[in-house]
Amino acid sequence: MDVPQIGPADVQELRGRVAGPVLTPHDDGYDRETAAYNLATPIRPDVVVGATGAEDVAAAVAWAAAHHVPVGVQATGHGADYPMEGGLLISTTRLQDCEVDPQARTARVGAGVRWRSVVEAAVPHGLMGLSGSTTDVGVVGYTLGGGLPVLGRTYGFAADHVRSLDVVTLDGRQRTVDAEHEPELFGLLRGGKGNLGVVTAMVFGLVPLEGFHGGGIFYPGEDAREVLGTWARWSRGLPETVSTSIALLRLPDLDIVPEPLRDRFVVHLRYACTAGGEECEQVLAPLRAVSRPVMDTIGTMSGRDIDAIHMDPPVPLPFRDSGRLLDDLDDAAIDALLGEAGPGTDCPLALVEIRRLGGALARTPGGAADLVAGRDGEYLLNCVGLAVPPFGERVPGAIEALLGALREHSSGRTLVNFQGGAGEGRDSTQAWTAEGRARLVAAKAALDPEGLLRFQHTVHA
After folding, report:
1. Phi/psi of residue 356, each to 5°?
2. How far is CA 392 from the centre of its chain?
């Protein structure tokens, strides 16, 4: 679709409607306002609004609709999988309200809040939010994609705990939706990502948890087959108190990498258990007995330490990624995976990860009519490659080769937040069932008939 030209008079009109900064590529601060965590994805709108509140968002959306200008939304840019060229970007980074109600066990956050702020506000009350592999990610964008938590097998998807959403639709209206007020829109927003409006705030439930047992074990990469086979058999019978994943990591020789792991190919077990410490260790015993660990960090953890489980990079990076749901992880699937990314291969991917699903992730909360994907998956394959020399050009092909090798073990579907941009189309078809996609397309035709919300994880008829 063509993007309309935006002239100086149009920009001046927009500046008169909002309180926050309105910047074009010629203005100081534009690069900072549009920067995404994924440095490989250029975000170059014709104009960006630094929204200071829901009123700014509503005014910006109404301006865009009047001028037929497509709209993108960004808080942290962790999900910036597709380039944005032209149009209007609404930056929600200034929407930083974060309030925890310890009696109701809820949190209310603005669209710019990262999980780290929720952690700091909730943990003193013995509560936790259901964050993913890093608390550097924005709460709202993550949750609208379903939100796969580190503790997901115990508590389900983050979207399952949403109580209400404040959203600006393409008519410029500010709405508050929940299970009683516009329940269809409420359901479609949870898992439907940013297709139907711009969410400015969210209320969600917290879980009571003083602490848990977690961390990681790193094994030598040459033992990958033995470790993966043991993990696959072990993971099939886990109690719901255990959430786990395992990853093949090719780590650089950088200061941000712990010294024993620098410039090494390793297998990384990630483990989180909400049972008592003794039971957590008993469950873990088969993985303690395999191979010869290079490093072991598993022990009692506070909610503040949750990032230490996955140890995601703490700084923005240029990367390409993609993922698929797997129906099984048998010996044939492990052979296929190792054939593309195991020891002795020239694989350029920094991370090839398998997350165990099931448990509470497989259940739909009573009465929910959401679009959260992955409830029927057994495992999630996630692969990431750095888009840097000397191997960056090989990353998309390596991702496609790995997905192809595991095709017969996959449903062909994925989670919205894990679809990525490597070799994929602009339509997030693989994230929803045919029925779910039909509901989303019908709602988009009614709420966004011009398809103005068309950047990143979008659906179109």
Report:
1. -80, 125
2. 22
Asked if pLDDT for residue 398 goes beyond 70, the answer is yes
> Is pLDDT larger for residue 254 or for residue 170?
170
The span from the CA of 18 to the CA of 54, in Å, is 10
Bridge partner residues of 325 (DSSP): 380
Helix axes 331-341, 395-405, angle to 10 degrees: 160
d(CA 243, CA 223): 22
Sign of CA dihedral 74, 94, 40, 432: negative
CB 90 within 8 A of CB 49: yes
Cα–Cα distance for residue pair 447/126, rounded to 1 Å: 40
- 3-class secondary structure, 11: helix
Residue 128 backbone dihedrals phi, psi, to 5 degrees: -140, 150
Question: Residue 427 gets which letter from DSSP?
Answer: B
- CA-CA distance, 304 to 209, in Å (whole number)? 12
Q: How far apart are CA 135 and CA 125, in angstroms?
A: 18
- In three-state secondary structure terms, 157 is coil
- Residue 223 is encoded by which pair of tokens? 């033992």
C-alpha distances in angstroms, 100 versus 202, 204, 306?
12, 10, 19
Helix (H, G, I), strand (E, B), or coil: what is residue 182?
coil
Give pLDDT tens digits for 210-239: 889 999 999 999 999 999 999 999 999 999
Q: What whole-number distance in Å separates Cα of residue 68 and Cα of residue 2?
A: 10
Structure tokens at 374: 């992955």
Residue 218's DSSP bridge partners are 268, 295
Q: Is residue 252 within 8 Å of 293, Cβ to Cβ?
A: no
What are the pLDDT digits (tens) for 431-460? 888 899 999 999 999 999 999 998 877 887
At 421 the pLDDT is 76
Supply 170's token pair.
């393409």
Asked, as a colleague might, if the bond just before 102 is cis with ω within 30 of 0, I would say no
> Does residue 423 carry a pLDDT above 50?
no
